[in-house]
Specification:
single chain, about 170 residues, mainly alpha, two-stranded antiparallel sheet, about 75% helix, elongated
């Protein structure tokens, strides 16, 4: 297999971006909100599955989905601010393009749930299934971010580079 010299391997963060990442309070905010969102997700999944299994706890499941959605909106807004500070643009910086793209799907599904809830567009069971679809997509997105954090740590230790604008690791 030949090496493709047309693609230059770049680190996830430039030295300047790493300094901005390490010095902004938004990194800490993201570091706090991410596990909070995950805990809200786990609680909500339990409540939704309980409702779907037993027919009990609709109000608790609904409240948990709304709470999860608002935590998602919060982490998305603060994440966009973090991306602006670190990369100079609010969303779709090349280093996080695919994570942001999937985040848009996650937000769309959570927002669709709120619309269904407020308009009666779907019945309660359908709303719960929509929430579970949103959660499954969120799980994919969370895995993307965890993978990216792992790659950043490997890069910092000098073990890895990311091919520019491809999302391919080497």
């Amino acid at each position: 297999m030949q090496n493709d010299h047309s693609q230059q391997s770049l680190p996830l963060y430039t030295a300047e971006q790493r300094v901005r990442r390490d010095n902004t309070r938004w990194t800490l905010v993201q570091g706090i909100l991410a596990p909070v969102q995950f805990l809200v997700l786990l609680t909500s999944v339990g409540l939704v599955v309980r409702y779907l299994s037993t027919g009990e706890g609709l109000a608790a499941a609904t409240i948990s989905i709304v709470a999860k959605t608002f935590v998602l909106y919060t982490i998305m807004v603060t994440g966009a601010i973090w991306e602006k500070v670190v990369f100079g643009q609010y969303l779709f910086a090349p280093a996080f393009f695919w994570e942001d793209a999937v985040s848009m799907v996650v937000i769309a599904l959570h927002t669709a749930y709120l619309v269904a809830l407020m308009t009666g567009w779907l019945n309660e069971r359908q709303q719960m299934y929509l929430a579970l679809a949103a959660y499954a997509t969120y799980a994919v997105n969370a895995a993307q971010f965890i993978w990216k954090l792992r790659m950043a740590r490997l890069q910092t230790s000098g073990q890895l580079t990311i091919a520019s604008n491809t999302g391919v690791t080497a």
